[in-house]
Design goal:
The chain is globular. The chain is of the alpha/beta class and 172 residues long. Helices cover 21% and strands 22% of the residues. The chain has a 4-stranded parallel sheet. It is built from 5 helices and 7 strands; from the N terminus they run ααβαββαβαβββ. It starts with 14 loop residues before the first helix and ends with a strand.
Length: 172
């Protein structure tokens, strides 16, 4: 996300993150790596994302989640159309599928999906990766919640390219 807390511009544009023509290039961890994302994904049992996030990732030449079940929340995608994912029409359906499969560590991605999981009290820890850019306005995974969610700082990691990654544990 941007330093001011946005994951996309209001129109869904991500050039500030992906390195579009006028964005000054994609974020760099200073070591030619992936900011630890590969290691992180290796430590999860499954992934849940929303349709918009899936549609952004789907055309990548290399699928970043090999070996991990990927669940997509969508009422518009056709189940079975992409063998790499399982489509679920509701939060309750995806939670039941994850619990039924015995998954314990699940990576949740996508603004509305993260918000839904936070609002439902289904998040144990939260990692925020802030790219050194201010975009002024945009979409955020944080909106109105039924109650405050208290967080406890676990660690902060900085990268040579300027990204700051902070992990919090949700206090119960």
């Amino acid at each position: 996300m941007s330093v001011d807390g946005f994951i996309a511009r209001l129109d869904g544009d991500l050039t500030w993150l992906t390195g579009g023509e006028d964005a000054g290039g994609a974020p760099d961890d200073g070591e030619g790596g992936d900011f630890g994302f590969g290691e992180f994904v290796a430590g999860v049992d499954a992934l849940v994302m929303g349709r918009s996030t899936y549609e952004f990732i789907a055309p990548f030449a290399e699928w970043p989640y090999l070996g991990r079940p990927v669940h997509v929340l969508s009422t518009t995608l056709t189940p079975g159309e992409d063998a790499r994912i399982t489509v679920h029409p509701s939060l309750d359906d995806v939670v039941a599928a994850i619990e039924g499969a015995g998954h314990r560590r699940v990576y949740v991605d996508g603004g509305r999906t993260v918000h839904a999981f936070l609002a439902a009290g289904l998040v144990d820890d939260l990692t925020l990766s802030r790219v050194p850019v201010l975009i002024g306005t945009g979409l955020t995974p944080f909106g109105e919640l039924p109650a405050d969610i208290r967080l406890e700082h676990e660690r902060t990691r900085t990268f040579a390219g300027g990204m700051v990654q902070t992990t919090y544990r949700v206090r119960r």
